[in-house]
Amino acid sequence: MATQEQLEVRALAREFAKGEIRPQAEAWDAERALDPTILAKVAELGFMGMLIPERYQGLDLDLVTYLTALEEISWGDASVALSVAIQNGPVAGLLLRRGAEEQRERWLPELAAGEVLGAFALSEPEAGSDASSLETRAESVQGGWRLSGTKRWVTNGDRADLVVVFARTRPDSQGADGVGAFLVDRGADGYRVGRRERTLGLRASETVEVHLDGVRVPDEAVVGDPTRGFQYAMESVILGRIGVAAQALGIAQAAYEHAAEYAVEREQFGRAIADFGAIREKVAGMATRIHGARALTHQAGGELQRLREEGRVRGNGFPSPNALAAMAKLTASEAAMWVADEAVQIFGGYGYMRDYPAEKLMRDAKGPEIYEGTNEIMRHVIAREAIREVKEARGG
Ligand SMILES: Cc1cc2nc3c(=O)[nH]c(=O)nc-3n(C[C@H](O)[C@H](O)[C@H](O)COP(=O)(O)OP(=O)(O)OC[C@H]3O[C@@H](n4cnc5c(N)ncnc54)[C@H](O)[C@@H]3O)c2cc1C
Fold this sequence. Notes:
Blueprint: H1 4-31, H2 38-44, H3 63-76, H4 78-98, H5 101-113, E1 118-121, E2 137-141, E3 144-155, E4 162-168, E5 179-185, E6 191-196, E7 207-218, E8 222-223, H6 229-265, E9 267-268, E10 271-272, H7 277-309, H8 321-347, H9 358-366, H10 375-393
Parallel strand pairs: 1-4
Antiparallel strand pairs: 2-3, 3-7, 4-5, 5-8, 6-7, 9-10
């Protein structure tokens, strides 16, 4: 059952999404840009620092409340939710778990206030699902490091002030070992934003290429152990993935509401199309998949919250929070894609037109099936743990 805090935060987020985000979402999609003031407004509500403790001026919400707010923002527009999720999840989460106290004090209050926008640069042109094959290099120099390489698909990368860059600190290392996580100031010499991608959906979100041409960072910019950054990245994507699930839920809920309303209004053969069995079946399927995906997402959030309170990152047994987050991301993103497709179908020819919201939601829904690890990788994560559990039970 939802707590009083969850209900209040949800109501606040829905009101904000309804008044400030949704009315502009279509224009932002067409212009491929968010209103530059929108993230400042999100920050005024504290939503740029939802998981940041109060001592760093954050809201310090529990994870389920965070997911609830993120879903509502995504209900307004998933491009806004994507920026908010990167800030709260991988960026702030990494600093909280692995950052030194000076790094937290330096960055967390400004992230919470929305004065600093964060980005997470792991993927590369040749290192996507196999992110541990990354080739960006970090060369040790007097007093710091010099970063060189190219990062791909960096969300917020164009406007971000703080970019978490993953780079290989040991030239002879391969895979997950010998990778560091670096806090890079976007204004650093040699940090260059390349191509802005032309995306299918989430068009108002900035997805850019980033070139690091010998960017100098001081030793203080390294998060934790300079050889364990990849492990930190994988911890961060657990939180990232349940955030993606919440984004997908917002898209699905919006598509469902538009389609159900349209089904009641639209008449054919002298009656509302909502009276036809074929349409009722779709409505039932949409509502059921959304509720099922939300229950799983909140379960994953609850488990992860329990671990946070215990000061742990990974859990034992199957499904661990890692597998649960993958299940939530998989289920919610597939639900969103399916629901958005059905919504277009319920709108009929109008659904295919850009004047109605369904087609945008269908384009937006595809993103969560891909980023923070594709759904094929989610199945791999879940199966790996499930099979390990079976083997262990057999004593193998
Ligand atoms: C809108 C958007 C925003 C993004 N934002 C960020 C960001 O902020 N930061 C960041 O670092 N990255 C970001 N990404 C990158 C994203 O995480 C990668 O696109 C994703 O991890 C997949 O990598 P890839 O695109 O190289 O696909 P590939 O890894 O080349 O995969 C191609 C296909 O092969 C499949 N495949 C690959 N390996 C396996 C396997 N072992 N088993 C089965 N199937 C497999 C994949 O599932 C996929 O279907 C973003 C991507 C998008 C689309």
